[in-house]
Automatic annotation (TrEMBL):
<comment type="similarity">
    <text>Belongs to the Nudix hydrolase family.</text>
</comment>
<dbReference type="InterPro" id="IPR020476">
    <property type="entry name" value="Nudix_hydrolase"/>
</dbReference>
<protein>
    <submittedName>
        <fullName>NUDIX domain-containing protein</fullName>
    </submittedName>
</protein>
<dbReference type="InterPro" id="IPR020084">
    <property type="entry name" value="NUDIX_hydrolase_CS"/>
</dbReference>
<dbReference type="InterPro" id="IPR015797">
    <property type="entry name" value="NUDIX_hydrolase-like_dom_sf"/>
</dbReference>
<feature type="domain" description="Nudix hydrolase">
    <location>
        <begin position="70"/>
        <end position="195"/>
    </location>
</feature>
<dbReference type="Pfam" id="PF00293">
    <property type="entry name" value="NUDIX"/>
</dbReference>
<keyword id="KW-0378">Hydrolase</keyword>
<dbReference type="InterPro" id="IPR000086">
    <property type="entry name" value="NUDIX_hydrolase_dom"/>
</dbReference>
<dbReference type="GO" id="GO:0016787">
    <property type="term" value="F:hydrolase activity"/>
</dbReference>
Amino acid sequence: MRWGSLMIAKRKGQGAARGKARDGVAPIGTRPSRPKPRYCIVCGTKLRPIREHGVRRMACPRCGFIAYRNPVPACGVIVMRSGEVLLAKRAHEPRRGSWGIPAGFMEYGEHPERTAVREAKEETGLIVRLSGLFGVYAGRDDPRTRAVLILYRAKIVRGRLKAGDDASEVGFFALDRLPKPIAFRAHREALGDLRRMERRKSR
Ligand SMILES: [Zn+2]
């Protein structure tokens, strides 16, 4: 499945970095603090700091391995039903008990679209079909890592709504009556964009 540059152009500007959440929910504000690796995962030698293209990285003086710190991609789905959006309550830390768009981290070698469909099924019990790219957001406040949140629009194909895996509750919510708190800033930004889009559509 591919979406052309038209879709990208149409979506440009959405999901851009913003200074603060616009839905009135204050950011929870835990700084990402993934521990820095100290030893080489290839040969076990103690890593030493180097500078590469002006960026400080930890590298192995013996085998040359460089421990890059890159954001981790996460994928999820925007599913609407009768004007309401599908959300899942987090069953585990971080942000246990807060709500989010069904989404999760990509497995190595997995296609982002597959991640999105898999996470929807695991968390909500619903089999969905993706219908287009919704937006891409920077994840800055997940304490585990910096992330890139890729969200697709999706439609329900079949399945019964049932919380599973990382979710303790699932449900559809009116965009002006979302449950609180929403777990991550990227999710709040996406829901803000969704609300603006739906408002524009209903005018
Ligand atoms: Zn090494």
